[in-house]
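4.2 Preliminary Data

To establish feasibility before requesting continued support, the project team ran the inverse folding procedure on a target of 380 residues. The structure was first converted into the token representation described in Section 3, and no sequence information of any kind was made available to the design step. The complete token record follows.
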């Protein structure tokens, strides 16, 4: 064998060696190996992780109380972070200027920066008191300014509340509700799909007719109707559970059909027939053999269902029939942007839409990577 043939066979030998090594790895190790190769999935996972951390520790990232009203600071524009002052002098520590309102030639009030005083941005400052994860009292915040300075990275709303702080806290409701509703939907849909596909016959026929009946309802109008009948006297936890159940009500049917199709193909395979011959019960075959083989598909559907529920919650809350104050979600915050006049003078109040965009895009990227990694035995 000459040198050129040896160089040609080297990639093949390396690939065969990798395949032999993968034969001794567990399924989850194989999935993780392929998932790490997807850059877009890693980006999506980091986006989702960032939003979750912001939501969990929103009070730490917020220099001001997101629920405290301060009418004197209503509709303040986002502060600009500077490294160079008005005279052209450079500073290593970033700083901000205060906003002041002045009247222009047409007697319209406009915001201008007061460059007479700089307010350096400092990290890990003491501020308003809160409880970390609702248990441990603290006054430590990630950033802030001293003295009478102000720093609103995304501006304020009409009540003078910090929009960035509220967006971070709103993630608690928007993300937890979508996750809770999706878990209910996936749990019900996957189990019913496995049971329907395994037993077949009359039970399968009745189950599929019921699924078709549920799918015949238009989702959005039904969600709106169900959300509108929630009594306004209910407490926050009851409204949260009710909204999650409403979102899960019509989201399980598609997964049921998909899982049923996979189980119909699996129930006649050799390992299922062998389990029956060895006397395994129906429950063992369903939950020990069939259900784990549909788990990869179920996980992918879970990550792709979350964005749809986030959008549905935001839309219903924007219309005023979803989450209500004092609960805050991204949809509730977008309700203030319903008038053209408000948008024209205060465009920064649409900032929550960027958080919705990041959440939907992040979960879609993550689901796309999981979909490819869920079947590590296919050749890409």
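Position-by-position output of the design step:
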């Amino acid at each position: 064998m000459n040198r050129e043939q040896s160089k040609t066979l080297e990639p093949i030998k390396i690939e065969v060696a990798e395949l032999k090594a993968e034969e001794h790895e567990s399924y989850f190790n194989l999935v993780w190996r392929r998932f790490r190769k997807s850059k877009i999935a890693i980006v999506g996972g980091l986006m989702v992780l960032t939003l979750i951390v912001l939501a969990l520790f929103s009070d730490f990232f917020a220099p001001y109380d997101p629920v405290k009203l301060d009418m004197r600071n209503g509709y303040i524009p986002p502060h600009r972070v500077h490294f160079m002052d008005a005279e052209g002098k450079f500073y290593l520590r970033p700083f901000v200027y205060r906003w002041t309102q002045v009247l222009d030639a047409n007697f319209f009030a406009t915001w201008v920066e007061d460059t007479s005083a700089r307010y350096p941005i400092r990290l890990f400052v003491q501020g308003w008191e809160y409880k970390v994860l609702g248990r441990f009292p603290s006054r430590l915040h990630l950033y802030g300014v001293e003295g009478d300075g102000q720093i609103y990275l995304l501006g304020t709303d009409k009540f003078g509340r910090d929009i960035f702080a509220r967006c971070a806290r709103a993630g608690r409701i928007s993300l937890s509700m979508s996750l809770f509703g999706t878990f209910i939907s996936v749990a019900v849909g996957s189990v019913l799909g496995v049971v329907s596909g395994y037993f077949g016959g009359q039970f399968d026929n009745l189950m599929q007719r019921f699924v078709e009946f549920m799918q015949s309802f238009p989702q959005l109008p039904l969600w709106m109707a169900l959300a509108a009948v929630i009594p306004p006297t209910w407490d926050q936890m009851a409204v949260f559970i009710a909204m999650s159940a409403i979102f899960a009500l019509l989201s399980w049917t598609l997964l049921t059909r998909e899982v049923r199709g996979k189980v119909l193909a699996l129930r006649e395979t050799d390992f299922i027939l062998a389990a029956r011959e060895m006397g395994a019960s129906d429950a063992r075959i369903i939950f020990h053999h069939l259900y784990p083989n549909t788990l990869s598909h179920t996980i992918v559907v879970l990550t792709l269902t979350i964005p749809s529920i986030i959008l549905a919650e935001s839309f219903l809350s924007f219309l005023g029939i979803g989450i209500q104050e004092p609960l805050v979600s991204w949809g509730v915050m977008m309700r203030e942007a319903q008038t053209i006049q408000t948008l024209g003078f205060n465009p920064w109040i649409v900032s929550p839409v960027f958080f919705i965009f990041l959440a939907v895009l992040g979960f879609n990227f993550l689901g796309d990577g999981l979909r490819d990694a869920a079947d590590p035995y296919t050749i890409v």
